Amino acid sequence: MAKWGQGDPRWIVEEREDGTNVNNWHWCERDATSWSKGKFQELLVGIVVENDTGRGEISELKQVEGEASCSSRKGKLIFFYEWYIKLGWKGIVKESGVKHKGLIEIPNLSEENEVDDTEVCSLHGLMNVTFSLSCTFAVSL
Fold first, then answer.
1. Nearest to 61 by CA among 80, 38, 92, 31
2. pLDDT tens column, 105-138
3. Cα–Cα distance between 101 and 91 in angstroms, integer?
4. Nearest Cα to Cα of residue 61 among 113, 14, 103
5. pLDDT tens digit sequence for 48-75
6. N or C: which end of the chain has fewer CB within 10 A?
7. Distance from C-alpha of 108 to C-alpha of 113, rounded to nearest angstrom
8. What are 25-54's pLDDT values in tens digits?
């Protein structure tokens, strides 16, 4: 603990009669939920993956539930988020021309989980496959 007058010069809240949080030095939090929902739509819908056997595309953002916030404490940004995301996908097998569609479900996308620990479920008809999200998720859909 610094002696009186020897603290960080940014720490001036005590000296202000109005107690203003100058430069967001103390805890400051902003809701980022609606911005995040728009960003999911922008970034996820339209992702196309194609190889020799077929082509797949995320066709729609069916459901997004959760929240996100951006906080600042002593000049450091801290992000909190927890999401449930359901995406619709469609694809075609090149050789046969058979079309498929289904759902991708991400039940707990959170800053608390490592990328490799995030659960992703692909639902196609009666088939339900659970796999681990890898760093190449957008490429390997």
1. 38
2. 999 999 988 888 888 887 764 334 433 333 333 3
3. 6
4. 103
5. 988 888 898 999 999 999 999 998 877 7
6. N
7. 9
8. 667 788 999 999 999 999 999 999 888 888
